[in-house]
Amino acid sequence: MITGSYVSQWSAEHPWAKDSYVEQDLVISRALERNLLDIELVLRCWRRFMLASCNHVPTVKEFVLNMEAKLKEQAYRLDTQEILRPGILFDPDAAWRLVSEKVISKF
Questions:
Q1: Model confidence pLDDT, tens digit, residues 19-63
Q2: DSSP 3-state of 90
Q3: What's the Rg (C-alpha) of the chain?
Q4: Dihedral sign computed on CA atoms, order 11, 88, 76, 65
Q5: Cα separation of 59 and 83, whole Å?
Q6: Taking the CB of the first residue and of the last residue of the chain, which one, N or C, has fewer CB atoms within 10 A?
Q7: How many CA atoms lie within 13 A of 36 on its CB side?
Q8: Where do the structural domains in the chain lie, given as residue ranges?
Q9: Residue 46 has what pLDDT?
């Protein structure tokens, strides 16, 4: 997992509404890449996480619109490398395709 200190350091330059939003894209996409997921379980956990962190579980439409907006932001497309270990690459387009194919249909 990504430590809180890295998230805080990173968000100083790339602010998010809440630090708790930072990890979800990375964690979900990395697990999807490795086919390590029980997607139903992940969605249940994600819903609980969203309720606990911001008291709101996005609808499918909200989730998709949010991700589409993020993918248009240059800062979003580039900032993940700053919080990943050297040598770990993150392709936001590939991650979104995985989430779209494997998760959105089960939302």
A1: 555 556 666 666 677 776 788 887 888 889 889 888 999 899 998
A2: coil
A3: 13
A4: negative
A5: 28
A6: N
A7: 7
A8: 20-106
A9: 82
Mean pLDDT of the chain: 77
Q: Encoding tokens for residue 71?
A: 């993918």
CA dihedral 31, 87, 71, 94 (to 10 degrees): -50
pLDDT at 1: 44
| Separation of alpha carbons 65 and 31, rounded Å | 22
pLDDT of the residue at 101: 87
The one-letter code for the residue type at 97 is R
Plot region of 35 (φ>0 → left; ψ -120 to 50 → alpha; else → beta):
left
Which amino acid makes up residue 70?
Answer: K
